[in-house]
Design goal:
The chain has seven helices and ten strands. The chain is of the alpha/beta class and about 240 residues long. The chain folds into two domains: about 130 residues, Cobalt-precorrin-4 Transmethylase, domain 1 (3-Layer(aba) Sandwich), CATH 3.40.1010.10; about 110 residues, Methyltransferase, Cobalt-precorrin-4 Transmethylase, Domain 2, CATH 3.30.950.10. The strands form two sheets. The protein has a five-stranded parallel sheet with strand order 3-2-4-1-5, with helices on both faces. A five-stranded mixed sheet has the order 6-7-10-8-9, with helices on both faces. Keywords: Cobalamin biosynthesis, Methyltransferase, S-adenosyl-L-methionine, Transferase. InterPro entries: 4pyrrol_Mease (IPR000878), 4pyrrol_Methylase_sf (IPR035996), 4pyrrole_Mease_sub1 (IPR014777), 4pyrrole_Mease_sub2 (IPR014776), CobF (IPR012797). Pathway: Cofactor biosynthesis; adenosylcobalamin biosynthesis.
Length: about 240
Amino acid sequence: MDDLWLIGIGTGSPAHVTLEGLQALRDAAVILVPQKGEGKDTLAALRYGIIEASGAQAEVRSFDYPVRDPALPYGQRVIKWHDEIARRWIAAIQSAPPGPVALLVWGDPALYDSTLRIAERIVPRPRLRVVPGITAIQALTAAHAIPLNTLNGPVKITTGRQLRDHGWPEGEETVVVMLDAECSFQGLDPEGLQIWWGAYLGSEAQALEAGSLAEVGGRIVERRAKLRARHGWIMDTYLLRRL
């Protein structure tokens, strides 16, 4: 693997892929597609649809995505998981035709995605090319037609785990929360907080909620559970703002 291209594909709409991303797919020799298991076939289908729409002639190879070991401490669990993903990349490209290997990365490879860290495990290290993609944050603010920041205001981007462990970040006005499978906003004092939530952003299944956290928080929890049961998976994010 001399050249590894990480192509951001946005959050579910084929229209999110940039012209640069489409050309990279057409120029790749091999494209790797992860298979994430039962109930998540839609995720692979979205990638295959993007590849087909691009007109790519590359050899497409799939690999089974490993699962994290819940018995291990969080840090160790993630390290072992990343190690195994790297091994499966290498196994998937054995006897592949020469040329760049491309991976379609949900959202943007630079934002709360581990693909770049996994690539560091490959020896010898391939030449990396990153094609930026639309992030979940951009898709969220566009779907709600709101600005990300207040006038000259800062923005804190964090995770559900951080919000659960540490609560509302001190001194912050706008907080974007990603990777939150537990609706961690439930642990906050809702007084004065507004929330803009979105799932399956940019796709036909897009779901949105907005309002005061006190009024819509419970509705988001209930709706999220129903959507996950219906689709077998969910990707969502939300923005909180203190008014």
